[in-house]
Amino acid sequence: MKQLNILQTVVNKPISIVTIAFAFFLAHPIYAQAQNLDPAKKALETFKTQLMGIIPIAAAIMLLCLAIGYAGRYIEKDTFVRWAIGVVIAGSAAEIATLLFKGNGG
């Protein structure tokens, strides 16, 4: 029996169009950039700055609550250790991301 390849032709056409568009925008990135997004950029940078201050404070408060729960024997030691490690990692995630993704230039 002869296998029909009509479906293969139909599927390849959209893929090739997407590939051509991707290659064009990869070669000419200025056409892919949106214009006049300064207010949004400013708002997101302000949000990022505020989160960098809030996240460590929230993590410290959570650690304090965990310590009170452990001292009052509401939670066991292994649960306290697991949650404390998770809160410390989550609290320092913003700083870790800054260290990893920021350039050496300062």
What features would you describe in this structure?
The chain crosses the membrane at residues 50-71, 83-101. Pfam families: TrbC. The chain has helices at 6-27, 38-71, 77-91, 93-101. It is mostly helical and 106 residues long. It has one domain (6-101). α2 (38-71) runs antiparallel to α3 (77-91). The protein is elongated, with a radius of gyration of 26 Å. The protein starts with 5 loop residues before the first helix and ends in a 5-residue tail after the last helix.
Helix content: over 70%
Low-confidence stretches: none
User: What is the mean predicted local confidence, pLDDT?
Assistant: 82
Shape: elongated
Q: Please state roughly what percent of the residues sit in beta strands, choosing from under 5%, 5-15%, 15-25%, 25-35%, 35-45% or over 45%.
A: under 5%
List how many beta strands DSSP finds: 0
Oligomer, anyone?
Answer: single chain
The end-to-end distance, rounded to whole angstroms, is: 67 Å
Integer count of domains: 1
Note the total helix count: 4
